[in-house]
Design brief:
Length: about 230
């Protein structure tokens, strides 16, 4: 078997551990310590979150979608493929090294979606982008860390708190969709979504493409009408 080759390291800002990139032929693996976060051959179904979220808003004129977490670019390309020509996808990614790898190392696997004219890259914390403006997005899709029980950065916990959920809801336009990816179910988190007056749909899908692997959890929460505090 072809051995893994170390390709690079990318520190996570603000006390997070570093991401480590390995390759084996045309297969790429990003790891944190002994845990594999993503793999280009049997990648996690982050694209399913992007597909389901964007399909719900694709018929809106100039739909605007915020994605938190670039990964290997599969969420971004799936979002672009499920939106119209006049849409905009704001891609927020905090780790500069991960952006560089998408551009220079494995971006060809997803078709270089960062180069799409509908993509706006924000190299900063998605939480800061969410805070900027109310009613700015038709969908916000968060594939950040490992879900409510994160691995890479303690500051990500804010996104899954009551305050983070409320501000994300307020950043949605009427009937907007707030989507989350998680490695496992979390009843306490679902209760927080309900407390924010969101209509919640919980889905389980296989963690790997081709219907294999452990199950992961997706939450799609809808802000109906003008609901919310703003």
């Amino acid at each position: 078997m072809v051995p893994w080759k170390l390709m690079g390291r990318a520190p996570v800002p603000d006390e997070g551990p570093e991401l480590v990139l390995y390759s084996r032929g045309e297969e790429y693996s990003i790891r944190v310590g002994a845990s594999e976060l993503m793999n280009s051959r049997v990648y996690s179904r982050d694209d399913e979150l992007a597909k389901l979220g964007c399909q719900r808003v694709r018929d809106r004129k100039k739909a605007r979608v915020l994605i938190g977490g670039l990964g290997m670019g599969y969420s971004l390309v799936t979002a672009l493929n499920n939106l119209g020509a006049d849409a905009e996808v704001v891609m927020a990614e905090l780790v500069p090294g991960l952006v560089q790898w998408n551009r220079d190392v494995f971006g060809h696997l997803a078709g270089h979606p960062l180069g799409d004219t509908r993509t706006t890259l924000r190299q900063e914390d998605v939480a800061a982008v969410i805070r900027e403006q109310p009613r700015a997005y038709d969908a916000i899709l968060l594939d950040v860390d490992n879900g409510p029980n994160g691995l890479t950065r303690r500051a990500n916990d804010w996104l899954y708190s009551d305050t983070g959920i409320t501000l994300a809801r307020d950043a949605l336009r009427p009937d907007g969709v707030l989507g989350y990816w998680s490695a496992m179910p979390d009843r306490a988190f679902v209760k927080r979504l309900h407390r924010a007056s969101l209509l919640v749909e919980e889905l389980e899908v296989r963690a790997q493409n081709r219907g294999r692997g452990a199950r992961i959890t997706l939450w799609l929460a809808t802000r109906y009408g003008g609901g919310g505090s703003r």
